[in-house]
Design goal:
Cytochrome Bc1 Complex, Chain D, domain 2, alpha+beta, 394 residues, 4-stranded antiparallel sheet
C-alpha cells in the first residue's frame, strides 16, 4: 500500500520465500528452519537441477507496484520497467534479498527496497545479498524453468534454459509484455549472452491478464521436443525442430529480448490492481494519525505487536481485533480514557505499568500485557493505541 513500511525483521521469511530441502527416502520429516536451503526468493515458481544433479537454479518473480506505492521515489516509467525478473543459481545458505532488496536491471545491481529506507539507488544491506545470474524485463512473471538436454534442437540450445513467462499486469499505463517462452544461453553454469524470444504469440489480440493463452509449464519429450502448457486456454503446445541437431545458429532466426527499459507504446489505461486482489487489512495504518514524538513506522510496528505478530503481547484478545473493546477490556476507539488523559505519554505509562484493579472491567492487565516488551515496543503499541483513539470518523 501507499508508503507502507516493511516489517523488520521480516517474519514471513520463517516460512516463505525460500527453498527447503528434504530427504526423499525419509518419513515423518518436519517443516522448520533447519530444512531451509536458501532464502530471500520471491515466488520461485520455476526450479530445475542441471544434468549433474547438483547445481540448482530457480526463477524469481520481481515485486510489483514500486511506482504506485512510492511515487515520490519512482516515476510511472520506472514503476513499469522495475524491478527485473531473475534467474538465480541456488546454493546452501544463499540469501537473494527479498523483501529487503530488488534487482534493478538497468543499474545491474540489487537495490534496497523503499519499504526499508531505499531511495532507488542505494544498495545498503543488499550489497551483501546474492545477485541473479540473468535478468529479464519487469513483471513478465516467470512460471517455469527447464534446462534443455534434449538432442532434437540445435547445439545452440543444449544446456541452456527455457523459461515460460506468464505475462505482466503491472506495466500500465504502458503496454503489457511477456506471454512468451524465452531461451537463456548457458555456459559453465551461468548466463552466456542475452536472452532470446523463443516462442511468442500465445496471448492473442492483446497482451494482458485477459490474454487468450498464457504459457505456464515446460517439459521435454523423449524425442527432445518442447511441450508448453497454457493455463488460460487449456492447451498444450509441442514445438519440434526438423533441421537436425547439427544446425548452426545462422540457420534459424534469433530475436533478442527487449531492453530492460523498453516500455513500448503507452496504452493510456489506468494502473491495474493485483489479479489476486488486496487484503482488506492491507495498509490499515497508512490512514491513521501519528502522535507527536512518534512516527508512522512506530504506528505500523505497534499494529503488528497489538495483533500478536511481534512481541507475543495479547492486546487484541482483550481490546478486540480492531480496538473496539470486549467484556475483558475497554475500547481504544471511544476517546474515553480511564487511567490517563489519553495523551501518548499517558497511554505509554498505562501499558508499561499495567492495570491491577480495573475500574469497569473484570480482567486486570499485567504490565505490558504480560509480555516482555522492549521500551521501543511499548512506545510503538502506545502510538498505535493513540492513533486508534484519534482516528477520523468522517
Amino acid at each position: 500500500m501507499l508508503e507502507s513500511p516493511g516489517i523488520n525483521p521480516c517474519t514471513e521469511l520463517d516460512t516463505r520465500a525460500g527453498i527447503w530441502r528434504f530427504d526423499a527416502a525419509m518419513k515423518d520429516q518436519r517443516f522448520s528452519t533447519a530444512q531451509r536451503y536458501a532464502t530471500g526468493i520471491r515466488n520461485a515458481d520455476g526450479i530445475a537441477l542441471d544434468s549433474s544433479g547438483h547445481d540448482l537454479f530457480a526463477t524469481q518473480h520481481g515485486r510489483d507496484q514500486l511506482g504506485q506505492n512510492w511515487p515520490k521515489i519512482y516515476t510511472a516509467e520506472e514503476g513499469a520497467y522495475l524491478p527485473a525478473e531473475e534467474l538465480v543459481h541456488v546454493s546452501s545458505g544463499a540469501n537473494f534479498g527479498w523483501p529487503y532488496c530488488y534487482y534493478d536491471g538497468v543499474q545491474e545491481k540489487l537495490i534496497l527496497a523503499p519499504e526499508y529506507g531505499g531511495d532507488g539507488k542505494r544498495a545498503g544491506v543488499c550489497a551483501n545479498m546474492r545477485a541473479p545470474i540473468a535478468a529479464f524485463p519487469a513483471h513478465w512473471a516467470p512460471d517455469d524453468l527447464l534446462l534443455y538436454y534434449g538432442r532434437q534442437f540445435p547445439q545452440h540450445f543444449r544446456g541452456g534454459a527455457f523459461i515460460a513467462f506468464h505475462g505482466s499486469w503491472n506495466r500500465a499505463p504502458f503496454a503489457q509484455q511477456g506471454y512468451d517462452v524465452v531461451f537463456q544461453p548457458f555456459s559453465s553454469g551461468t548466463a552466456a549472452g542475452p536472452c532470446e524470444i523463443f516462442a511468442d504469440g500465445f496471448a492473442g489480440a492483446q497482451k494482458g491478464p485477459g490474454a487468450a493463452h498464457r504459457p505456464t509449464g515446460l517439459a521435454v519429450g523423449a524425442d527432445g521436443a518442447l511441450f508448453i502448457s497454457d493455463d488460460a486456454g487449456g492447451r498444450i503446445y509441442r514445438i519440434s525442430y526438423v533441421g537436425g541437431a547439427g544446425a548452426a545458429s545462422s540457420d534459424f532466426a534469433v530475436r533478442p529480448c527487449p531492453r530492460m527499459n523498453d516500455l513500448g507504446a503507452s496504452t493510456g489505461t489506468a494502473a491495474a490492481l493485483p489479479p489476486e486482489g488486496i487484503h482488506p487489512n492491507a495498509g490499515a495504518t497508512a490512514s491513521l494519525p501519528v502522535p507527536r514524538g512518534s512516527s508512522r513506522a512506530m504506528v505500523a510496528l505497534g499494529d503488528r505487536i497489538y495483533h500478536g505478530q511481534q512481541g507475543a503481547a495479547p492486546c487484541a484478545g482483550c481490546h478486540g481485533e480492531n480496538g473496539q473493546g470486549t467484556p475483558l477490556g475497554p475500547s481504544l476507539t471511544s476517546r474515553r480514557w480511564l487511567w490517563s488523559d489519553g495523551s501518548y505519554g499517558g497511554i505509554e505509562k498505562s501499558i508499561r505499568d499495567g492495570v491491577a484493579n480495573p475500574k469497569k472491567f473484570r480482567a486486570p492487565m499485567p504490565p505490558m500485557g504480560g509480555a516482555q516488551l522492549t521500551q521501543r515496543q511499548v512506545a510503538a503499541v502506545a502510538a498505535y493505541a493513540w492513533a486508534l483513539g484519534h482516528r477520523s470518523t468522517d
